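Render this sequence as a predicted structure.
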Amino acid sequence: MLIAELAEFLIRASRKEIPIQFTGLRPGDKLTEELTYKNEVTDGFIGGPLEIIRTCRRAPADLEDAIERLSARIAARDVSGLIRTLSSIVPEYVPSDLLRLNL
């Protein structure tokens, strides 16, 4: 489905007269979206467009340790430590500019 088709569908559903205005690309706009990371592998499709993604799995003990570290940062209200811990657990995570500016 194209973005324009989605917009038309939503406008019809709202039962309002809303004009669609094409503005072109703005700084930061993406033309494509990457749905997998470097350490993930695509492995076929299920039921049409649903793609199977193989990713690394963490051992249950590793997950428990990660949750404990995150919980400790939250309990201490240590936002910058929470972001560092989250980034170490999920290397692909990139905090937003707004969050980074407030740390």
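Summary. The longest strand covers residues 41-46. Helices lie at 3-14, 60-75, 79-89, 97-101.
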